[in-house]
Every structure is written in C-alpha cells, then in structure tokens.
Amino acid sequence: MPLALTPVGAVQELVLDELSDGVRISRQTLVTWVDRGLIEATLDWGSGPAGNPLRLIRISDTSLEFVRTFAAEYREDTVSRTESRRLLKLIDRNQVQRLVRRGLVRTRAVGGETRLDVGSIEDYLRSLEAPGAPAD
C-alpha cells in the first residue's frame, strides 16, 4: 500500500527583501536559517523590474507562520558579546564595542551581565543591507 503524503501547506515564493522587511530580520540571518535547515525553505534568484536580480525564497505557509512568530521572539532575545560577533560576522571584539558606543547596537543588563540586544543587531544588519547603505 503506497504512503499518502499530506501536504504541509501551500508554498509561496517571496522576494527575500520583502520577507526581511516584514519580519524585521536581516537577509543574512534568514539565509543562514535556510542554509542550516532551521526553516524549511529554498533560495533562488529571479529578475525584477529592468532585469535587476532578486533573491527569492520559497517557503510553505506553515514555515512562514513559524518564521513570523519566531522572528518576533528572536528580536526580544539577548546574546553575549562573543555571540554578537558571530551574528555580525565581526572578528575583532573592539568593533562590537564601537557599535555599542555609537549607539548602533543596544545592550541590556541581564542577571548582572551586559548582553547585546538581538533586535538592535538585526536592525543594524538590515541598515547595512539597505540600498545605498554606506560601507561601515
């Protein structure tokens, strides 16, 4: 007797930039989640107006709802300076301190320890991904 596959939900093809804006998570983070298999989705390329390349994401409705819920919780989290360097793809810990001093990344005291606010890290990453963003 053949196995009956139950559809997980409709699959949507979205522009990665639009999903990033919708959930307020950087494209870098979303691509990492897909690459690591944390969300069930595939990445592809398409062309937009005037033939400009667009990064696309194919994601099921179920996974999309999970991303929306998880993204909100993730933005409220905090991380250590070491983990923040990994998220920011920075090697030098002094770079993180400069971002904090400049007010580009916020910190919070958690249990007597200073931790970095993930939401502010994601906002900073998204600002770097914006069209015309200065190289920092």
Question: How would you sum up this structure, described in words?
Answer:
The longest helix has 15 residues, at 61-75. The strands form two sheets. A three-stranded antiparallel beta sheet has the order 1-3-2. Strands 4-6-5 form a three-stranded antiparallel beta sheet. A hairpin with a 2-residue loop joins β5 and β6. The chain contains six helices and six strands; from the N terminus they run βααββαβααββα. 45% of the residues lie in helices and 23% in strands. With 136 residues, it is of the alpha+beta class. The protein has two domains: 11-75, Orthogonal Bundle (Multidrug-efflux Transporter Regulator, Chain: A, Domain 2), CATH 1.10.1660; 78-129. 21% of the residues are buried.
Structural key phrases:
136 residues; alpha+beta; Multidrug-efflux Transporter Regulator, Chain: A, Domain 2; 2 domains; three-stranded antiparallel sheet; 6 helices; 6 strands; globular; disordered N terminus
Using only C-alpha atoms, the radius of gyration works out to 17 Å
Mean residue pLDDT: 88
So what's the CATH class of the largest domain? Mainly Alpha
Give the helix level as a range of percent: 40-55%
What count of domains describes the coordinates?
Answer: 2
Number of separate helices:
6
Largest sheet: 3 strands, antiparallel
DSSP strand tally? 6
One letter per element, helices H and strands E, the order comes to: EHHEEHEHHEEH
Strand proportion, as a percent range, falls in 15-25%
Structural class: alpha+beta
Secondary structure blueprint with pairings:
Layout lengths: L10 E5 H8 L3 H9 L5 E7 L5 E8 H15 L2 E2 L1 H8 L4 H9 L5 E4 L2 E5 H12 L7
Antiparallel strand pairs: 1-3, 2-3, 4-6, 5-6
